[in-house]
Write a structure and sequence with these properties.
InterPro entries: Rhodanese-like_dom (IPR001763), Rhodanese-like_dom_sf (IPR036873), Thiosulfate_sulfurtransferase (IPR051126), Thiosulphate_STrfase_CS (IPR001307). By secondary structure, the chain is an alpha/beta fold. Helix content is 29%, strand content 15%. About 3% of the residues have low confidence.
């Protein structure tokens, strides 16, 4: 997974004619139609992947929703899906994680966004022809009681009970809680002992693409986020941690937990909160 979870611009250029590679544009429909898109891309707006009605933690859509969205976009389960947006990849990363959790084996984040691609590469305003499919999701099995091993059968999701267990070992060097939000949000309230790591720091905003791998490894290490530790990510509603999750997995981090409920669920449970600039 670590080598294939991010698609470089060069890789995509080399595979543009490959019928097994599908481009998924998750911007709003007006952007896709009015501004343009990558050639042969199909559009499924990000908001359609967010469930605002269920009682499940976070905003993951149900299985039937995912199957309907991907089937309506003509996606096959065996295809390589490359996802992009126009916000440095943060919305695309959330869709990527959603598809992985529902068992899509090969889904990748484009290393740049639409604006970055459009600077030097062809775009289109033509509709992409495709046939709808019957998409069958295969949700990964949850593993809340053990560390995720990121194989085909186990989900990286962790639950509130896992967070509670981690907080009971504040002096452990085996794990690190990572808050991917902005400084003001962090200082207003965060999980005790968490490290603040702004998800946008992984992006070269001038070039609108991910920073080089060596730079990213050094950046994470400077925050105490290293491959020997179990990394547990959270934000507010699991969008921003999706981007950091993808980057960590791209760098080869094996033990990365994804707290889907994040602070929205934690605060609803009256979980303990730390305030101030620590971390």
């Amino acid at each position: 997974m670590s080598e294939t979870i991010v698609a470089s611009v060069d890789w995509l250029e080399d595979h543009r004619e490959d019928p097994s590679v599908r481009l998924l544009d998750v911007r709003d429909a007006w952007e896709f139609d009015g501004i343009g898109h990558l050639p042969e891309a199909v559009n499924v707006p990000f908001d359609e992947f967010r469930d605002r009605e269920s009682d499940d933690p976070g905003t993951l859509p149900g299985q039937s929703v995912v199957e309907s969205l991907l089937g309506s976009a003509g996606v096959e389960s065996a295809e390589t899906v490359v996802v992009y947006d126009d916000t440095y990849g943060v919305f695309a990363a959330r869709v990527l994680v959603t598809l992985q959790l529902y068992g899509h084996d090969d889904v990748r984040l484009l290393e740049t966004d639409y604006s970055g691609w459009a600077r030097e590469h062809e775009t289109s305003q033509e509709s992409t022809a495709f046939e709808e499919t019957v998409y069958e999701a295969r949700p990964l099995d949850p593993d809340h009681n053990h560390e995720p091993d990121h194989n085909r059968d186990t989900s990286p999701l962790v639950d509130a009970e896992t967070i509670e267990a981690v907080l009971e070992e504040p002096d452990s060097n085996d794990h690190v809680l990572v808050d991917t939000r902005e400084r003001e949000e962090f200082e207003t309230g965060h999980l005790p002992g968490a490290v603040r790591f702004d998800w946008r720091s992984t992006v070269d905003e001038d070039r609108r693409r991910l920073k080089p791998r060596d730079d990213l490894e050094e950046l994470f290490a400077d925050h105490g986020i290293t491959p020997d530790k179990r990394v547990i990510l959270y934000c507010n509603t699991a969008r921003r941690i999706s981007h950091t999750y993808v980057v960590l997995r791209w760098l080869g981090f094996e033990r990365v937990g994804f707290y889907e409920g994040s602070l929205t669920e934690w605060e609803a449970r009256d979980g303990v909160i730390e305030r101030g600039a620590s971390g």
